What we know:
Blueprint: H1 2-21, E1 42-53, E2 56-69, E3 76-79, E4 83-88, E5 95-101, E6 103-107, E7 112-123, E8 128-137, E9 142-152, E10 158-167, E11 172-183, E12 186-196, E13 202-204, E14 207-212
Antiparallel strand pairs: 1-2, 2-3, 2-4, 3-6, 4-5, 5-7, 6-7, 7-8, 8-9, 9-10, 10-11, 11-12, 12-13, 12-14
Amino acid sequence: MKQSRYYFIIAILIVILIASGCKDDDGIAANQKIDASKQPTMVSHNVQTLLSDSGMTRYRITTKTWLAYEEQEHPHWVFPDGLIAEELDKHSFEVKMSMKCDSAHYDRSTRMLNLTGNITIHDKNGSEITCDSAYYDEEKALWSLNSMVTITSKDGSKIETNQMFWDRKASKYYSDSFIRMQAQEKILEGYGYESNEKLTTYKVNRVQAIVPVNDTRFPTFN
């Protein structure tokens, strides 16, 4: 009888040990189901690669971390540690546009790119764009540039605003926000703006001020 009780106690201890062994270091049961759709289907580090669109090599990207979520309702890519991307001409492979940022999110179903943090964009005309956040609609070829937007052209013309749209199909910039522009030895301020990509032909709506650049009564660009 004592021997049977001894074996019974041993059996209980074995069951307890097996149950405790089915948990990881965080106390999560090993048989707990994990939602695969919320996990990245690909994790890549220190990536430099070319991407194709419709069978043509169109982009060159460099990133420290690339997370691909292909099993979600809206498949997307996340670049949490920054992204450098270059758009290539489909015939000559010359760089048409380059951009870099602190983090990025690309929705593959809507073809929308969201950039955040220390954004710098260079276009084919030699202009430089900086801002804090930006959205790019790939289907419409339309940029929405937001927060602390600065555009500097190759010849030194400069625009500052809080929001600017860049329509790449129409090759123009436009905005309804307050604008401050330095061009041709003068500073213009107003609400509403439209220009070509080179900033050589432009229109400022509802002009608030026109000031010579060397007028010391007004602050100038750094």
